TrEMBL record:
Residues 25-138 form the Alcohol dehydrogenase-like N-terminal domain. PROSITE patterns: ADH_ZINC (PS00059). Residues 187-254 form the Alcohol dehydrogenase-like C-terminal domain. Its cofactor is Zn(2+). Keywords: Metal-binding, Oxidoreductase, Zinc. Belongs to the zinc-containing alcohol dehydrogenase family. One of its GO terms (molecular function) is zinc ion binding. Gene3D superfamilies: Medium-chain alcohol dehydrogenases, catalytic domain, NAD(P)-binding Rossmann-like Domain. It holds the Pfam family ADH_zinc_N. It comes from Enterococcus gallinarum. This is Alcohol dehydrogenase catalytic domain-containing protein. It comes from the Bacteria. The keyword Oxidoreductase applies.
Length: 377
């Protein structure tokens, strides 16, 4: 089959790789009809050497048609149309049974739960930017789309970014009347803004250095915007703008955000890759007794983590991989009821064969890019 493979730093290539096969009786094979590039894929694009081997198939936002099922698969059948979550869950362990499926005990032999396309730290499961995908624990790790007429683009983002954004807002405890700062106006940030408004936030402020992403935040969510240009002063400016700090700050940026010169130099002699500047900004711009939710991916140890700021100002810090499987039915219902339409964030739909160009566009935010959907064949 054809698949997007990691070939080294900032080098994704579509290659011929082996077709997936049924390995366990609980597996299914999916023929991919749509898949997407996620912001967290960019962390692998830049820093994947820590967890990936050359030739590894990436991607964790796929959907498609069931082609084959193992002998113990009971809920899925050939021909079912499914969205595949980025979490891999067995459905039976303590974590899967208690809506914490991103830390499934049985989907990885590491300390972390199993994820598609994230390499050896997360179970070594090949990803879904490909023509076909093997889905472990397929009965639990899939969502059957009941409405066959609904287009892929309406439901594709149930795989990750919609439930991740929803969970981020819920986990942060956003409530009626809150002031919320969302760092990053990429796909997850845009959806987090929308869910924060729906949760009753009085003010939602979108922060990003890229003008067209802020324009999308304003048009899609009607939120306030703040264009980031000076990391040294932005936290103080946001603190003043919110008159004493935001009740909640949600970091939807992660380690590929803007990296100050001093931090770049420090990273040469530390285990850290990328930046933690969004966390440092949040530590200063949040209200005392406020909450910082870290949703952007950080894959390495961190130098200069602002522990003192968090401790001295009684800031609650929450973070982690969103458990999305149990949220997929709820958000699907919201889409059906037209409470949310995820399609306006799609700016580019491209053939899978053009994935290398798509990664370059997405990484550089060129051509007013926000979200790329890839189509096999």
């Amino acid at each position: 089959m054809r698949a997007v493979t990691w070939q080294g730093k900032e080098k994704m290539e579509v290659r011929n790789v082996s077709d997936p096969t049924i390995i366990e009786p609980t597996d299914a094979i999916i023929r991919i009809t749509a898949t997407a590039i996620c912001g967290s894929d960019l962390h692998l694009y830049h820093h994947g050497g820590a967890v990936l081997e050359e030739g590894y198939v990436v991607g964790h936002e796929p959907m498609g048609i069931v082609e084959e099922v193992g002998s113990q698969v009971q809920k899925l059948k050939k021909g079912d149309r499914v969205v595949i979550p980025f979490n891999i869950g067995c459905g039976h362990c303590h974590f899967c049974q208690n809506e914490m499926e991103s830390q499934c005990d049985n989907s990885s032999d590491q300390l972390y739960g199993g994820l598609f396309g994230f390499g050896k730290l997360n179970g070594n499961h090949w990803g879904g930017q490909a023509e076909f995908l093997r889905v472990p624990f397929a009965d639990f790790t899939s969502f059957v789309v009941p409405d066959t007429a609904i287009p892929d683009e309406k439901v594709l983002f149930l795989s990750d970014i919609l439930p991740t954004a929803y969970w981020s807002v819920q986990n942060a405890g956003v409530k009626q009347g809150d002031t919320v700062i969302i760092l990053g106006s990429g796909p997850v940030g845009l959806f987090a803004q929308k869910f924060a408004v729906m949760a009753g936030a009085k003010r939602v402020i979108a922060v990003d250095p890229v003008a067209h992403r802020l324009e999308k935040a304003q048009s899609y969510n009607q939120v306030e915007t703040f264009q980031l240009d000076d990391l040294a002063t932005s936290a103080d400016d946001l603190y003043e703008l919110t008159k004493g700090g935001a009740d909640v700050i949600i970091d939807c940026v992660g380690m590929d955000g803007l990296e100050p010169v001093k931090e770049k130099a420090k990273n040469l002699v530390s285990l850290q890759s990328g930046t933690i500047s969004p966390i440092q900004m949040a530590a200063k711009a949040v209200k005392k007794f406020g909450t910082v939710q870290i949703t952007g991916v950080y894959m390495t140890p961190a130098s200069s983590y602002p522990l003192q700021e968090f401790f001295m100002r009684n800031v609650a810090v929450k973070h982690g991989q969103a458990p999305v499987i149990h949220l997929m039915p709820k958000i699907y219902e919201m889409i059906q009821k037209e409470e949310i339409d995820p399609t306006p964030i799609i700016t580019h739909t491209m053939p899978l064969e053009e994935a290398a160009a798509a990664y370059n566009i997405f990484d550089k935010k060129e051509d007013n890019n926000i979200k790329v959907v890839l189509k096999p064949n």
